[in-house]
Every structure is written in structure tokens, then in C-alpha cells.
């Protein structure tokens, strides 16, 4: 916990792979980092301290775990390692930031105020979900519903099965094309009569013999108890309903970066792009505000992988340490 009159050398906002990795590096540099890890919430989409891996059962592509590991277990390891070296943790949310002067001032939802010489933003991004019956229950239990085909699509449980992807943009095309390597058939469900994706991405997917588009359809429920068995579809033009048997559902309708607190009455706000992601300097984790850095999915709309987020957390911590050192703050 931060003392009322203390000025923290570095505060990390967020507790996914990027945040905990930044904590490990900052703590080993004797910066005594304070991590404000967030609190659980469910509206408008489920968010848990630890990031999107908290909704992932099997993780097979993170280096160092040849037999795989669950997302929550992996985040427990990250946190334990950060705390081992002295990272302190607050269970609260940052509501607004005043970056207009040094030291910075962070206002927390619980009413406390934290002052800091430097800040690392690692709040991640939240997948957009359909919000239909059965979806979140099976996503949380590892029942075959996912928001990341690249993360989960190669798992043995999906290989050789019929799978479904919901979406019509470039991300949906990329995820569906990836799944064609493993699935017997990939059903691409889109609510309109044409995809929004670039023609190149569309042609690549539709050129696959095991891809099947479903136009003017939307998922209205996910069927299955312990695992997904089918999705119920509604025709967006006629209203008629049908059932499509599948063994996996991948929701690819975009992500929303967790940057609302940076616009919530914050002073000298960090620059964001048109989608709300934090804008970084070229080949750097530095933001538009001197002394504020960002790492992970909050600044990465492209890769969105745990390993890349962790790498960005390392980068942010190293740059933050050098920034503090250049100002005589050790």
C-alpha cells in the first residue's frame, strides 16, 4: 500500500503479463514499484485482475511450459514472481490521472490518491463479446468459446472439428484463415451480406476449401452444458432461426482498450489513437507524456499475445528505470 505522503518512484497500472513483467523488472532494479491491479467487474464485458488470460483455460504457446498451463495459473506465477522481488499491490482502480505536473497524481476509485514520479500503463484491452446466453459461461469454463483463435485454435480439442467464427472484419478473416489449418470446416458467421474485411483477406479465406460463409446471420445463443455443441442462428433478413452444430466458437468482433480512465477528467492526457489505444513513440514504450510509459494490449492492437505483452512490459520497465536515473531518482 502507498503511504499518504509518499511519492512512488514508479506506479504500474494493470496486472496482466505486461504489468507483472514490468513489476518484476522494476522491483529487481530496487524501484519498489506499486502495482494498482484493478478490481473484478462484469459490465459491459467481464474484466478480471490478471487480464484476458484469466478467461483462458489452456495456454500452450507461452514459452517455458511444455505441457501447457491454465491462464489463471500463469498469472499466479507472474504475480508471485513480481511480489517476491518487492512489488507492492493495491486492489483498486485508477479513475483519473493528472499528468500536468511532476509528480503525477492518480485518483483511485476507493477515494485514495497516489503520487508518482513515473507511471507504466498496462491496463490491456477487453474483447468484445456477443452477450448471448451460454457464451460467457462456456468461455469461463473452457467449454470451447474463445475470443482468440491464434491463442486457442491449435489446441487438440479443436483439431479436426467443425468450428465457427463470428465477425466480418480483417481480424475475423485472419482468425478464420488460421483455423482452416486445424479444423475440418470453419463456418464464418456475419450479420450482413458481405464482409467488411479487405478484399485480399476475404479472398484468402474464401479460397480455402474448408471455409463456409454464413451471410445475414447472427448468433443468438450458444448451446451446450460442459462444452459447446452448437450455436443457434437468426437470419437478419427473415428472422428465421436454425441450429449449426460446432465444436468451437471464436468471437472476432474487436477489442476495446482499457483507456477510459485516461479520458475521465484526466489532465495532460496521454495521446490515444482513433481506436483508443495508447500511442507510443517509435521503437519505444514512451507515451506523449514525459515519464509515462505503456505496455501490452493497451498499446498493441496487432499482436495481442501474452508473450508480446510481457516483452513490452520488460521494455517499459527498462525505459522507465533509465528515465528515473536520468533525473537522479533512484
Structural description of this entry:
This protein is α/β, with parallel strands linked by helices and 330 residues long. It folds into 2 domains: 7-126 and 255-326, FAD/NAD(P)-binding domain; 129-251, 3-Layer(bba) Sandwich (FAD/NAD(P)-binding domain), CATH 3.50.50.60. The protein has helices at residues 17-28, 71-84, 135-141, 149-152, 170-179, 199-206, 306-326; strands at 7-13, 34-36, 58-59, 69-70, 88-90, 94-98, 104-108, 113-121, 125-127, 145-146, 162-166, 185-189, 211-214, 217-223, 230-235, 241-245, 248-251, 255-257, 292-294. Strands 1, 2, 5, 6, 7, 8 and 19 form a 7-stranded mixed sheet that branches. The longest helix has 21 residues, at 306-326.
CATH topology type of the largest domain: FAD/NAD(P)-binding domain
Instruction: Name the poorly predicted regions.
Output: none
**Bulk shape:** elongated
> What is the CATH first-level class name of the largest domain?
Alpha Beta
Give a short synopsis of this structure:
Helix content is 23%, strand content 25%. By secondary structure, the chain is an alpha/beta fold. The two termini are 20 Å apart.
Ordered list of secondary-structure elements with their pairings:
Layout: E1 7-13, H1 17-28, E2 34-36, E3 58-59, E4 69-70, H2 71-84, E5 88-90, E6 94-98, E7 104-108, E8 113-121, E9 125-127, H3 135-141, E10 145-146, H4 149-152, E11 162-166, H5 170-179, E12 185-189, H6 199-206, E13 211-214, E14 217-223, E15 230-235, E16 241-245, E17 248-251, E18 255-257, E19 292-294, H7 306-326
Parallel strand pairs: 1-2, 1-8, 2-5, 8-19, 10-17, 11-12, 11-17, 12-13
Antiparallel strand pairs: 3-4, 6-7, 7-8, 9-18, 14-15, 15-16
